[in-house]
Amino acid sequence: MNHRPMFLTFICIAVIFLITGCLSESEASIPITGGLDASVPVMVGSARDTVLDYVISSARLAAIPSSTEWHLDDKTRAEGDYRFRSGDWLMIVQMAGNSNKDQRVMIINHLEGIYWCGCVHPDGTVMDTSLRR
Q1: Which of 6, 38, 52, 64 is a plausible cystine mate for 72, CB 3.0–4.6 Å?
Q2: pLDDT in tens, 14-59
Q3: Can you tell me whether residue 94 is helix, strand or coil?
């Protein structure tokens, strides 16, 4: 009896488990509401939700959509940037690449002339850097 097909299947499964098991938590992906196969790193999804909670609860951007209404826009993606859209709103989350691991986030609504910029520190705190309403 030839065991070669079973051996090849076993090797393929072992390689898949090896590769996926080697990803760090920040490289793991989570699904984003609204995307069919779209996923982003956990750090980006967390920064997105943290900033939305912050700007909504602090009334910085009163008319901003809730976190469930944002969809990943992967058509205009630059290296390290993740763009989310909700109606006329655009949010850009930049992966942490600087030495202190802060993630920069920009929220823009050109029609209403609204702009918010800030960063999320590794401990989850949010810092405003710019606001125009």
Answers
A1: 38
A2: 545 545 554 444 444 444 444 433 578 888 889 999 999 999 888 8
A3: strand
| Nearest Cα residue to 32 out of 68, 76, 64 | 68
Residue 36, Cα to own-chain centre: how many angstroms? 15
Give backbone dihedrals phi and psi of 104, rounded to 5 degrees, phi first. Answer: -85, 140
Q: In the chain, where are the structural domains located?
A: 29-132
Short-list 88, 119, 85, 89, CA closest to 102: 119
**Alpha helices (H) in the chain, listed in sequence order:** 4-21, 42-57
Residue carrying the six token digits 């990803």: 23
Q: How far apart are CA 35 and CA 74, in angstroms?
A: 9
